[in-house]
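for the writeup, i need someone to sanity check this before i put it in the appendix. the sequnce is what the collaborator sent (i think, or maybe the updated version? ugh). structure was predicted straight from it, no edits. if anything looks off just tell me and ill rerun, i have time this weekend
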Amino acid sequence: MHYDPIKELLGRLFNLHPLLRRLFYRLLNILLLRSWHVRRTLRRLGPSLPPEAKVLDAGMGFGQYSWWMATRFPSWKITAADIKSEQVADCNAFFRKTGLSGRVQAVEADLVTWNSGESHDLVLCVDVMEHIAEDRTVFTNFLKMTAPGGYLVISTPSDQGGSDVHSDGDSSFIGEHVRDGYSMEEITEKLQTAGYGEVTVSYTYGTPGSIAWRLSMKYPVIMLSASKLFFILLPFYYLAVMPFVLALNRADLGTKHKKGTGLLVIARNSR
């Protein structure tokens, strides 16, 4: 299974023009259930933050969350950090072309060793911690960059099949993962040890979300890995499955799950 090359190929394709990149962001927001959960959390936390909040998007990837926050909360100042220099260059070029470079800046950074030197009202970390072995070090660094009373929001796979690993014999669907997922207890303990006083953890990707993920992400990636010719059929495939994916995503968002393959974590620096 080759998820990451497919992801990088799509990124290059949609980076050809700012309009294509905006379309790419919108598609990610629709297809990726974690985006539904993260954006709802940000909408809920947003009013409690200072009007000109300082925000760190730690491990920005394609930059879709920085873009969404910048358009949703136009007074926020956002620093977007990523270890990949090409991602940083692409995002800064896009932010510059869309007139956001004064409020959003991408920087190259290794979260294990990096400290921005600033105090942020919100630190956002989406699908990053499963890629980093030195997670305790990163959590300590996050606390140093979280203002008193500020929040850390994390979306990451759980240990209940979050990397499509359901038994000891399975291998991760995502080749770059260093861990298959966190338990609620593990990530709570690590964040509290780092110094966060309040930690709330909830499951995402319950039964409806897991089905939606297979329809919207896993099966298309399997087919694209087998043959790039599937790109021709991809629009027709999504036209057929999208009504089901949207209904399942909405059901997952509106349900409190007893278990799930994803975790949404909200930690607060209560100093």
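The two ends are 44 Å apart (CA to CA). The first strand starts at residue 54 and ends at 58.
thx in advance!!
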